[in-house]
Amino acid sequence: LAACPYRFFLRRMAGLSPVEDPEEAVSLTPAEEGAVLHDILRGMGEEAAGTGAWPDPGPVARRVFARFARENPTGWPGLYRIRCREIESAAEDFAARERERQGSDAASAVEAVELPFLLPETGELPPLRGRVDRIDRGPSGEVEVVDYKWRDGTRESLPLERMRAGLSHQIPVYLEFARTRSSEARATLLFLRREIRSVTLTASRWSDHREPWIGALKHWLALLAEGFFPPLPHHRFTFGGRMPPRYCDSCPYRDHCRVSPAFEGARRETEALAGLLARDGRFRNIAPLRPGK
Fold first, then answer.
1. What percent helix, strand, coil does the chain show, rounded to 5?
2. How far apart are CA 131 and CA 169, in angstroms?
3. Digit-coded pLDDT (tens) for 75-125
């Protein structure tokens, strides 16, 4: 919704499923690689939760690779084996890191993996639903929610400004959930491609940003309640004044959007859209969150 209300309407409200172009599957997509790695880490995490020790990923990886190959196209066999080896190597590096952390005095134990949650509506927030990859419990009862990311984390940092503008919700929602299990809570994104890197936000630090996030979330939900779904192309509307990701380039609905940068003549159409939104009172509270360039 916050990236592009129009795309949200087409996908979530109208229920339009984009038609994918048929193509030969040569190798796994990044999304498929991430799903395979998540399955491996889930199996390893279940064993770690039961025994207290992180296992060798080899047996779990072989089962996951075989099941994926039975149920999905894998592309060229040689490339599939190469991708599987890369994924297993990442799981090995992950296991080595977790074993090293277990040796410290402040080591946490795996409490649960792939845990769904539903937080009821409160006076501040709507109902929140999600699923966490892993929950760790520290020696003093503190809780850490861990989310695995299959991408390079070299340039990753906490998107605090985007959170305050209601443009990034994963970490805030995880922290809301973690706080129901312990007053000492934190949320960590663990990036596993190439070198392992982590980004962590504690509940105490988040308290300085929580109120602006809640306020921004209410503005976005009000836009939804109004039934107002304008397109917000990435080349014209920023994320809180910063350059947004180029989401229009990969949007499955770009052929239907006259303000997409892929549309010939988009400049004239986009300027008309910006003028319309500047006059529309329904967009008044959103404009500071998604200011134009």
1. 45, 15, 40
2. 13
3. 899 999 999 999 999 999 999 999 998 877 678 999 999 999 999 999 999
